[in-house]
Amino acid sequence: MSANKKLLVLPGDGIGPEVMREVRRVIDWMEHRRAARFSIDEGLVGGAAIDATGQPCPDATLEAARQADAVLFGSVGGPKWDSLPFEQRPELGILRLRKELGLFANLRPAVVLDPLVDASSLKPDVVRGLDIMIVRESTGGIYFGEPRGIHKDAAGKRVGIDTEVYSEDEIARVARVAFDLARQRRNKVTSTEKANVMQSGRLWRAVVSEVHKAEYADVELEHMYADNAAMQLCSRPKQFDVILGSNLFGDVLSDLAAALTGSLGMLPSATLGAVQPSGKRHALYEPIHGSAPDIAGKGVANPSAQILSFAMLLRISFGMEEDAKLIETAVEKVLGGGLRTADIMQPGMARVSTSV
Ligand code: ATP
Ligand code: MG
Questions:
Q1: Is the Cβ atom of 12 under 6 angstroms away from ligand 1?
Q2: 292 pocket-lining for ligand 1 (C-beta < 6 Å)
Q3: Start and end of every Isopropylmalate dehydrogenase-like domain (predicted)?
Q4: Is 340 left (phi over 0), alpha (psi -120 to 50) or beta?
């Protein structure tokens, strides 16, 4: 196996290591067909790292992530570490990685696989064949802007304050991610904001339009108020290809889109950083779901989200489109054959364990 790309695997806690084991089986299969053109390193993160080193994201893990071309992340946290003070919690493992690697663009595909069309919260005809990509800005906006906090006003009443701050560079770089993805897909971007009532929304719309005009005139661009986008996602979701949004609106819209697809156990995600002068781009791939302590160790977790996160990694970070597609098709075939983990169980289907 030649090793021109470096993969860092961080299984973490709870069901993380269980579902990651299934990815290792997929990699074994790739090695068997000589398709695995990358080297693999494994590291500690979350509670597992706290137990071993006292830190949720040890420096060695951060350094390995910097060196890697892509990180495949499991999940972190669990009751064992719940009583630790906030600054020592397992969740800080992922937060440190996101911050240090500058991962500003969170990509969440919402795909309805044919065998799971009945698992959607919408009618089958509305979602059959759905394939959208949500791009959420993930390092700026109202979750970080200053001033923030709970203060007392002149009358001694409490006032809660959050501030949405976006610079034009922050908007432009995440817009480029959305336009680049659209070019590989159905060539359409829907940019969402509330330009009617928010100044940051006005700037968002203006900058996205400028980037479009200067660099991506071949891509179709539409602007939509975020509240309208939420309604359209529920009524006519198939009109969308790539949806772009701020940290807040992207968060809300991607959870809504997730509900259209059925199970948490099926959904992958990616978070990308800036393209560096060397051409390298930091990227971390992880399932949407958490460490699911309620089912950890029972061998019943659905490994699909982790496996599909790996497929996304192969496509985006390693340029291995064919292998990504093969893996996605394999997942769909297994479901199509009527095999189900408990989270996506339907009448008449065969219940299987994590490692079918
Ligand atoms: P986090 O805060 O890390 O997102 P959480 O507790 O909010 O964690 P999850 O850990 O994702 O959420 O679990 C939510 C529910 O979904 C649990 O009942 C869990 O068992 C179930 N679940 C999550 N992932 C899977 C999976 N891969 N397969 C089956 N069930 C899952
Ligand atoms: Mg959660």
A1: no
A2: yes
A3: 6-356
A4: beta
145-152 vs 131-137, strand pairing mode: unpaired
Q: Which strands make up the sheet holding 268-275, listed edge to edge?
A: 38-42, 5-12, 70-75, 281-287, 268-275, 105-111, 131-137, 242-245, 188-193, 220-225
- Do 199 and 166 form a contact (C-beta atoms < 8 A)? no
What whole-number distance in Å separates Cα of residue 34 and Cα of residue 336?
Answer: 27
Asked if residue 153 belongs to a known ligand binding site, the reply is no
Residue (of 17, 19, 2, 11) closest to 305 by Cα position? 19
Which of ligand 1's atoms lies nearest the C-alpha of 302?
28
Ligand nearest to the CA of 267: 1
Instruction: Please state the φ and ψ torsions of residue 14, each to the nearest 5 degrees.
Output: 60, -130
Instruction: State whether ipTM is beyond 0.85.
Output: yes
* Gap between the Cα atoms of 248 and 138, Å rounded: 9
Whole-prediction pTM: 0.92
Distance separating alpha carbons of residues 115 and 102, to the nearest angstrom:
37
Task: List pLDDT tens digits, range 171-221.
Answer: 999 999 999 999 999 999 999 999 999 999 999 999 999 999 999 999 999
Residue 142 near residue 246, CB atoms below 8 Å: yes
Amino acid at 330: A
The length of the chain in residues reads 356
User: Residue 284's closest CA among 44, 95, 36?
Assistant: 95
Nearest protein CA to atom 17 of ligand 1, as residue: 292
The answer to whether residue 28 is catalytic is no
Is residue 1 predicted with pLDDT exceeding 50? no
Q: Residue 84 annotated as binding?
A: yes
Ligand 1, pocket-test mutation among 264, 298, 339, most atoms within 8 A of CB: 264
